[in-house]
Amino acid sequence: MRAAPYLALVKPGIVFGNLVSAAGGFLLAARGEVDPRLFAATLIGAALVVAGGCTFNNIIDRDIDSRMARTRRRPMVTGAIGLLPAFVFGVLLAAAGLALLAVATTPLATLLAAAGLAIYVGLYSLWLKRRSPHGTLVGSLSGAIPPLIGYCAVGGRLDAGAGLLFLMFALWQMPHSYAIAIFRFEDYVAAGIPVQPVRLGVAAARRHIIYYIVAFMVAAVMLTFVGYTGYAYLVVAAVSGACWLNIAVSGYRATDDRRWARRVFAASIGNIMVLCLMMAVDFHGTLF
Q1: pTM for the structure as a whole
Q2: CATH class of the 1-156 domain in this structure
Q3: Residue boundaries of the structural domains of the chain
Q4: Cα-Cα end-to-end distance for the chain
Q5: In the chain, which ranges are continuous DSSP H helix?
Q6: What is the pLDDT of residues 194-234, one digit of tens each?
Q7: What is the Cα Rg of the chain in Å?
Q8: Chain segment 264-278, per-residue pLDDT in tens
Q9: With 0-12 CB in 10 A as exposed, 13-18 as middle and 19+ as buried, what is 258?
């Protein structure tokens, strides 16, 4: 068995991005008292569940992937992996991840991982992605689960910090995803995926990108105002958010929407990575 097609099946970039957010949530909740074994088990378990979800997504999307330039060489499209082996691979990944989380972390972290998998595979991939421009919003809910897995692996409970993490990451997903849909516009049209930039136009998506970034900034700084992070995090969140917002607003002057959308996309990644880092190092609350 060649490993390369199976590696492509799990979408390593997506797995890595979700691990960054899971680590951020874990380290925020740990507040400097990190159990290395728990940390490793949480990240490995979350990675396996996300990889399983990505595998199922590749299986479900194999028809539309064949119509998109960026995805037409995926293993389910080229036939490098058969349907049954891919399905078994996805089941094994997801089951192993949930089992590890159940044994090594908390019941709540495991339940959240299972819920995220169900939302991503069931509600998003199987149903709304092909039917509604609101599919992106539902997909953002599953994308906001990994930081909660990390957070709840430590404390085993949902509180204001968990709620803000979920809100932050759900809001962040929207401009990030809209930016991709703009610079990959032709692919989405060819595949018949009704994302907002295709269904309602780039102008509407541009406005919504700005609205979501503003809402994300408010949620991000609230971590400090409710006592979960310090002033260093607050400054970084405000500055990085303002930079991202400035790039988004520049879209009204842009002569090339695709180039502008790539800048919004790149800024979204930089923004969330720096905030995850700051949550890990500036976890001392300042107000309460």
Answers
A1: 0.93
A2: mainly alpha
A3: 1-156, 159-288
A4: 55
A5: 3-9, 12-30, 36-60, 62-65, 75-78, 83-104, 107-118, 135-143, 145-155, 160-183, 185-191, 196-199, 202-225, 231-249, 257-281
A6: 999 999 999 999 999 999 999 999 999 999 999 999 999 99
A7: 19
A8: 999 999 999 999 999
A9: middle
